[in-house]
Amino acid sequence: MNWDQIEGNWKQLKGKAVEKWGEISDDEMDVIAGKKDQLVGKLQAKYGVTLEEAEKEVNDFSNDCKY
Fold first, then answer.
1. Could you write out the DSSP letters of every residue in 25-54?
2. How high is the mean pLDDT in each 10-residue block of the chain (67 residues)?
3. CATH code of the domain made up of 3-64
């Protein structure tokens, strides 16, 4: 699924994101609202990973999403 589709369907897909990244709260996911760059930044902050690692995680998530 491409990121535009994920952003458009964020309310439905947010639960999967919360399951995958439990350190990010439901409220924080609401603020992210499907914006890829904000999710990448939040992953870096919460998990202490590099930009490349966070981008890979987000890309893997988008590839795994089925709607």
1. -HHHHHHHTT-HHHHHHHHHHHH---HHHH
2. 91 93 95 96 97 97 83
3. 1.10.1470.10
